[in-house]
Amino acid sequence: MTSRKLLLTFVTRAGTTQGNVAIDECVVAGWTGRDQVALEKHIRELEELGVKRPATTPIFYRVSASRLTTDPAIEAVGAASSGEVEYVLLQHAGRLWVGVGSDHTDREVETYGVTVSKQMCDKPIATTFWPFDEVAGHWDSLMLRSHIVENGARVLYQEGALAGMLAPADLIARYTNGGQLREGTLMFCGTFAAKGGIRPAPHFDYEIVDQTLGREIQAGYDIVTLPILG
C-alpha cells in the first residue's frame, strides 16, 4: 500500500492546527448525484466523449495515494485531461474532515478504461479542512464551484449545492458496507456537470463555500502539458 504525506491545515471554531498527515488510501466515488436528472445529464455528458455508462451508481475507484498533491501545478500527458471540483472527506485523528479537491482525469483514456484514467493524473486537493460535525447541520447549503482559464479569461466551469450530491454518511456506508472510513482514508465524492461541456484548460480553480459560517476553501493549479511522441 502506498502512502502520501501532505502538510494540511485543520480549521475549527476553536482554532487552527497544522501538521503532516499520512494518507494511506485514496478513493474516487463516481456518479454520486442525489438528483437523478442531474446525474443522467452528467452520464450523457461523458457518453458524448465516448465514456461508457457506469456499472453501478455510485461506483468507487481506488487510486494510488501517491497521486495526491497540494502543488500549484501538475503535469499531464497530452492535452485531453481536465479537472472537476469535488468535496473530499478525510478520516484523520479519529475525526471526519471536509475539504475540496479536483479529480483531474485523462479524458482519452477514460473512453476505454475509467479505472485506468483515474490513475493517470495527479489529484490536487486544497490544504485546508473543516470538521464535518461543524457543517453537518447545514450540509446541503454548501456550494462547490470551479473556474477555468479559457482564451485568457476566467470562466465559470461548474457550480452546485451539495444538496445535489449524496450525503457523506450515505456514501461512506455504501463504500464500507455500513462501516466507517479507515484512519488515513481520503475520498473524492463526486462532481457536477460542466457548463459548456467537459474540456481542457491551462488552469483550474476550485472551491467549497460555507455561506452559513461565512468561510470558504479555495485552491487552483496550472496544467503543464507533456508531449505525446508516439
From TrEMBL:
Gene3D superfamilies: Fumarylacetoacetase-like, C-terminal domain. It holds the Pfam family DUF2848. One of its GO terms (molecular function) is catalytic activity. SUPFAM superfamilies: FAH (SSF56529). This is DUF2848 domain-containing protein.
